Each structure stands twice: as C-alpha cells, then as structure tokens.
Amino acid sequence: MKAKWITPAVTALDKNGHVDVEANKRIYDYLIGNGMDGILLFGSIGEFFAISMEEKKNLIREAIRHIKRRMTVYVGTCHMEFEQCVELSNYALEEGADGVMVISPYYFSLPDSALLNFYDTLADRVGGPLLLYNFPDRTGHDLSPELIYTLVSRHKNIVGIKDTVATMGHTRGIIQKVKKEYPDFMVYSGFDEFFGHNVLSGGDGCVAGLSNFAPDVAAAYVAAARADDLEKMERCQQQVDGLMAIYDVAPQFIPTIKKAMVLRGIEMEPVCARPLLPATEAETKEIRRILEEGKLL
C-alpha cells in the first residue's frame, strides 16, 4: 500500500524567542537522516501563529535551500489577513516549496458558503499546489467531505488535505467521497495513531507530530505499510500507541515535544513562543519515562 509520513516540524527558537535558523537546519537533517518522507514548516506544532512574516520568509528560504530536494517540503501559510496569506503562499512556492497548506480561518465559526468563498478565492490566487487543513477543535468549524469534494472538483491545484479530527470516520468519509473520482488527491490524518487505519482505508498516511522526536519509529511504520507487512505494522502501531501519552503530559503539547527532542539528543533550545511555558521538572520526568518505555532512550 502507498504510505507517507510528513513531519509537522517544530520551529526551533533561541533563548530570546526568535527563529534559530541553524538549529532548524539540524532538525531537518535529523529527520532526513531517519527516513522521513517530508516536512511541513509552520504547521500548528511549528507555532505559525506566533512568528512574524519576516522571520517566516527567512526560514522558508533557508530551509528549502538547505534541504535541497532531499525530502518533500510543504509550508503552512495561514494568516488571518487574507492578502498576507496569499503573499506568503506564493513566496513559499516561488522559493521552491512542493506545496502550501492553509488552515481555514479561525475565531468565528464559519458556514460552508464562507469556507467555499475563502478557498475558492485562495486557490485562484495561489500559483501552485494547495493543501487544505481541517482542524475543527481550533477553528470552530469543519471541512466536510462534501465541501472538500466541491473544492477539488473546481480547482486542479487543490491537491490534498490534513484532517486533524478525533475520529477516523471523518477522514474515511473524505477518502470515500473524494478519492473515488480524484485518486491522486492526498488525504492525510493529523493524529499519529490513525496512520495505519488511514493507509488501510486507502489514504496517504499522516502529518503528525511524534515524528519530531521519533522519526525512526514513523519511518519503520511507513516501511512496513509499503511492504504490506501487517505483523510489523501491528508492532509499530503498539509503539505509537504508547508514545501518544506524550500529548497528555501537559496542557500544551508543543513544549513537551520540544523537550522530548532535546532528551533524544537534538541540539536546540526547548523554547516556545509566549504564552506557552517550558516543560516543568515533573513533566520532564514523565516525558523521559514515556521515551524509555517506548525504547527511545
């Protein structure tokens, strides 16, 4: 079966909260060296909401030049000011990104008519591949399979979706509704534990955060899926299930993931943008326990 695991990469920051370009390059090399298929810059885990346009453009340029086509590069280009979303999207594509991913506007819960207008207009203005990003817990509204089908039928450059929902049934609905007519449309789950279910249902894999600190685990799962090795997939699923506890260590999981990366030896500061707080001593102890039980330390 076909399968990919894309890492929604953290954005390494220095002690002053600014983007640390060199630390981010080390992260990309770590992910490439451990077999990841691609990365997403400035997703939710990448703290897109807290980084200036100038710093985003600088890291996009430096990241793409550093990666040099060694893996797929998608860029999260969401901005609540529409023209800036368009500008950043086209900037990323002109710099060589393989596609841009845009979460639907958040804060207000929007009807389908507003969501169609937003993505219709965006797809017309963006000069390259566009992936949708559905995250109802953060936006207050859902991109339904029917809405996604409508968008894909209207725009050849809408090429995929990250579906971050708590039930695999929603993602399965997208696969069944859209991929039947548009088999090349990529459907990724946003939760690590759904990777196996996704690819077995005919999806494309996941864009999920455990691979920031456990790319070796993610790559092994992908290899098992591509080889149709169900026995190995079962073992990988059980390891992923155990690592999912990392998301419950603290109220916000980005500091937890960054601390796990440091514990695994990645040279970076576990700093997050305000108001996110660094992992406490007690939380760090729990992160270490999870990594040890997952055979990662």
Structural account:
- By secondary structure, this protein is of the alpha/beta class.
- The chain has a single domain, classed as Alpha-Beta Barrel (TIM Barrel), CATH 3.20.20.70.
- 46% of the residues lie in helices and 12% in strands.
- The protein contains twelve helices and eight strands.
- It has helices spanning 21-33, 53-67, 82-95, 112-125, 136-139, 145-154, 168-178, 195-200, 215-226, 230-243, 253-263, 281-293, and strands at residues 4-8, 38-41, 72-76, 99-103, 130-134, 158-163, 186-189, 205-207.
- It has an eight-stranded parallel beta barrel with strand order 1-2-3-4-5-6-7-8, surrounded by five helices.
- Helix 8 links the parallel strand 7 (186-189) and strand 8 (205-207).
- Helix 1 (21-33) packs parallel to helix 2, helix 9 (215-226) packs antiparallel against helix 10 and helix 11 packs across helix 12.
- The longest helix is centred in the first third of the chain and has 15 residues, at 53-67.
